[in-house]
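Quick one before lunch.
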Amino acid sequence: MTATLITNIGELTTNVEREGDPTGVLRDAAVLVEGSRIAWTGAMTDAAAAAATRTGAVVVDAGGRAVIPGFVDSHTHLVFGGDRADEFEARMAGVPYAAGGIRRTVAATRAATDDELRARLTGFTAELHGQGTTTFEIKTGYGLTVEDEARLARLAAEVTPEVTFLGAHVVPAEYADRREEYVELVVGPMLEAVRPHARWVDVFCERGAFTAEESRRILAAGSAHGLLPRVHGNQLGHGEGVGLAVAAGAASVDHCTYLDDADVAALAGSDTVATLLPGVEFSTRQPYPDARRLIDAGVTVALASDCNPGSSFTSSMPLMIALAVREMGMTPAEAVWAATAGGARALRRDDVGAVAPGMRADLVLLDAPTRVHLAYRPGVPMIAGVWKDGERLS
Ligand code: NIG
Ligand code: FE
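Model of the fe (iii) ion complex:
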């Protein structure tokens, strides 16, 4: 089994709680990787003894720089055709964002071949890895026919085990006057066709997309077929998304931009993660969600990119951290936790998001002495090394 010893780490974020610090920082630390898993973490001075039994371990000198767990991006929409740069440009000139733009991407995606979508997915995978994201989720939702939704799920499953069925993204144009029929299709043949390729079911519960009643029905049908629920809610205004996500036992409710006190209380008393997607507010000129309020109320918060061609065409988790710190009241430590361990919670994964023996060896070496630089030096490339399942990717 191949082994790697990363030593001389100035600041190691383990996310294993230690002395009241949820991010479990170790100074002057080392990590031993064996095969695809973490074998040991500890003080650099103990590293030689820890590695002694592993002959031929590759030694990487971190040079006093920081190491963090690989980012876990729990919310993306990466299987699509075309882009909507024109819509973004119009928005920056004052046109508001509306859910209806999704239909344009649906048309472009239906027109794309498998190979075109696959090539794009391969490119995005490299883009994410290069920025330190080692686990990511992908939603369907730009097909909206039985065949196209199954196709998108199948293609997404080629690059990630975290595939989400989002047939309830928007009612497609051809069903505009027959929305009940579309919901029937989603909970019937579409769910049946997508289920073999997916782990999750999601619904966009929002004005202009799906009502709370429709959303509950779709989540229940997905659950009955063995898919685990998650929800897009409270993105464009106040609504029932958070309440129904908590009631359904969803792993996560995503966006959470407009929350009232009852939403915050419901989240605080639940296992549902609030996943905040600041790339959306950045790209749509909406107010940012109030992460401070959620964290102070005891809610588990995750950060994700929501990478999609409409509301947030960025896959940069460092940007999400910078926005969360600058605009949403999070400390750098909270933001890094939310982008790693928080994402893992949102995906109900206990093998990623932390650096501890037995966890997957997904690690990022920063070209900086501390993780604070992710927010302190926004927009500056600082990913010096990425390991996924013990393999060095860059
Ligand atoms: O998460 N909210 C719904 N879906 C995406 C936007 C998709 C689009 O505009 O194409 C989102 O923001
Ligand atoms: Fe989304």
